[in-house]
UniProtKB/TrEMBL annotation:
InterPro entries: 6-PGluconate_DH-like_C_sf, NAD(P)-bd_dom_sf, UDP-Glc/GDP-Man, UDP-Glc/GDP-Man_DH_C, UDP-Glc/GDP-Man_DH_C_sf, UDP-Glc/GDP-Man_DH_dimer, UDP-Glc/GDP-Man_DH_N, UDPglc_DH_euk. GO terms for biological process: glycosaminoglycan biosynthetic process; UDP-glucuronate biosynthetic process. This is UDP-glucose 6-dehydrogenase. The keyword NAD applies. Substrate binds at residues 163-167, 222-226, 262, 269-275, 340-341, 444. The lineage of its organism: Bacteria, Pseudomonadati, Bacteroidota, Cytophagia, Cytophagales.
Length: 464
């Protein structure tokens, strides 16, 4: 069997960067080149100061320190990366389409197609091409058609190897994955390709956790996994609304049902709504695929997961307004957290963006503190919605680097991200700095309610 000596990964993002860093660490005999057209991102990956890596993930800097410029390289030379590689991972973004057919639902595959065309143009010897990005089922068919159109005698074997890491725990998830999924053809060359990729993971993942399937099952398993995870959050969030009407407590319910081993305890944390770059886009993509096969009931079923999530974000913002004597106009609302979850600087689809937008509609002033997110990112997130002018956003939204500055003179505090540090703030001091009556809206149910009430705060939780 052929040996893999050189890997190229196209896309140095949240998946490509950490995944390849771990593959390089565990396979010191393989040279791994990560290439990207974004020069700034590549420069940041090559920055000597590891604090300036483009992505913040616990443990990532340590892995990069051990591998970079030994067998892990970051470059903008995509062509050279492709030419040298035995195996090419495609790990580019696959956002929701914002134009044309499928707008707002289908995955935009233009970046994937560009990669395939470039591989077809540049490759002079046989390659294994691995879909690492999350893709609609049957994308491999389109890739194969583009790659085989060159007629230059080069053979391409296409594998699907979706990534299941979660941000904030990426390195741990990569080091100890529940499973690695590899889909490919059942032909002799397809089997050889699957085994070669399995071998790379088996450098650290037990063989029984490396699953091989056909390529369509692999592609569809990834969308299914994200849909099931998102559905769990929407299910518990649906119950949170009912809890708020009935004096039941959603955390007690999560504990009670989570102890049923058939349900399981994980992913039952009620919140202001799920965010992140993938849940919404992947569920919408599933809805689109189901519709395109005429499976309207299936599409509607999954669409509810998104509708409920939108409802939860809006409900949280409406609760702030309702409990602020029905108006937030001209009032200061302090946001603790902007990232879509703790331990990441990623803000894509963060619930905070939509809650802020809703409050801006009501003419609130917002002061944001997040330990990892920059002011430019926050302004860019709000401007991207195109609902308020950049001038209005800069006038109404202030971003500060000090959590105590954020709440000084605030009419209300809203917790949007579950950063641990929020729990241990000096809440007695905070009480003195906010306007009275002192109100907290905990969108993550992380603060100690008894302690805060004793200080004098009124606190509204999700699902309580
Ligand atoms: P990202 O936006 O962080 O990174 C993608 C990178 O690809 C960007 O740096 C972009 O410049 C680069 N790129 C785009 N087109 C290119 C081209 N033609 N040539 C070279 N570089 C190109 O995206 P991400 O979060 O890493 O996600 C990548 C894929 O992985 C998506 O399909 C996503 O659904 C999936 N995924 C993401 C996560 C996650 O936690 N973020 C987890 C699992 C799967
Ligand atoms: C998610 C999946 O967990 C990964 O397996 C998958 O690889 C990834 O999407 C992807 O395909 O991109 P990620 O979005 O990084 O990972 O983070 P999660 O931990 O899943 O959290 C997503 C959102 O759900 C966050 O906003 C989080 O706060 C929220 N959440 C999560 C809840 O509100 N409640 C929970 O119980 C869990």
């Amino acid at each position: 069997m052929k040996e893999i000596k050189n890997i190229c990964c196209i896309g140095a993002g949240y998946v490509g960067g950490p995944t390849m860093a771990v593959i390089a660490l565990k396979n010191p005999h393989i040279k791994v080149n990560i290439v990207d057209i974004n020069k700034e991102r590549i420069d940041d990956w090559n920055d000597e100061d590891l604090d300036l890596l483009p992505i913040y993930e616990p443990g990532l800097a340590e892995v990069v320190a051990q591998t970079r410029n030994k067998n892990l390289f970051f470059s903008t030379d995509v062509k050279k990366g492709i030419q040298e590689a035995d195996m090419i991972f495609i790990s580019v973004n696959t956002p929701t389409k914002t134009y044309g057919k499928g707008k707002g639902q289908a995955a935009d595959l233009k970046y994937i197609e560009l990669c395939a065309r470039q591989i077809a143009e540049v490759a002079t010897d046989d390659k294994i091409v691995v879909e690492k990005s999350t893709l609609p089922v049957r994308t491999a068919e389109a890739l194969k058609s583009i790659l085989s159109s060159t007629g230059n005698g080069v053979n391409f074997e296409i594998l699907s190897n979706p990534e299941f890491l979660a941000e904030g725990t990426a390195i741990d998830d990569l080091m100890n994955p529940d499973r690695v999924l590899i889909g490919g053809d059942d032909t002799p060359t397809g089997q050889e390709a699957k085994d070669l990729l399995s071998g790379i993971y088996e450098a650290w993942v037990p063989k029984k956790q490396v699953l091989q399937t056909n390529v369509w099952s692999s592609e569809l398993s990834k969308l299914t996994a994200n849909a099931f995870l998102a559905q769990r959050i929407s299910s518990i969030n649906a119950m949170s609304a009912l809890c708020e009407k009935t004096e039941a407590d959603v955390d007690e319910i999560a504990r009670a049902i989570g102890m049923d081993s058939r349900i399981g305890a994980k992913f039952l944390k009620s919140s202001v709504g799920f965010g992140g770059s993938c849940f919404q886009k992947d569920v919408l993509n599933l809805v689109y695929i189901a519709k395109s096969y005429g499976l309207d009931e299936v599409a509607e079923y999954w669409d509810q997961v998104i509708k409920l999530n939108d409802y939860q974000k809006r409900r949280f913002a409406d609760n702030i307004i309702k409990n602020s004597y029905n108006t937030v106009s001209g009032k200061n609302i302090a946001f603790y957290g902007w990232a879509f979850k703790k331990e990441t600087n990623d803000t894509r689809e963060s619930a905070a963006i939509y809650v802020a937008d809703h409050l801006l509609d009501e003419q609130a002033n917002i002061v944001v503190y997040d330990p990892k997110v920059t002011a430019e990112r926050i302004y860019a997130d709000l401007e991207y919605l195109n609902t308020h002018s950049p001038e209005e956003i800069r006038e109404r939204v202030k971003v500060v680097n000090d959590p105590y500055e954020a709440i000084t003179g605030a009419h209300a505090i809203a917790v949007l991200t579950e950063w641990d540090e929020f729990i241990n703030y000096d809440w007695e001091h905070i009480y003195k700095l906010v306007l009275k009556p002192a109100s907290i809206f905990d969108g993550r149910n992380i603060l100690e309610v008894g302690h805060l009430k004793k200080i004098g705060f009124s606190i509204k939780n999700i699902g309580k």
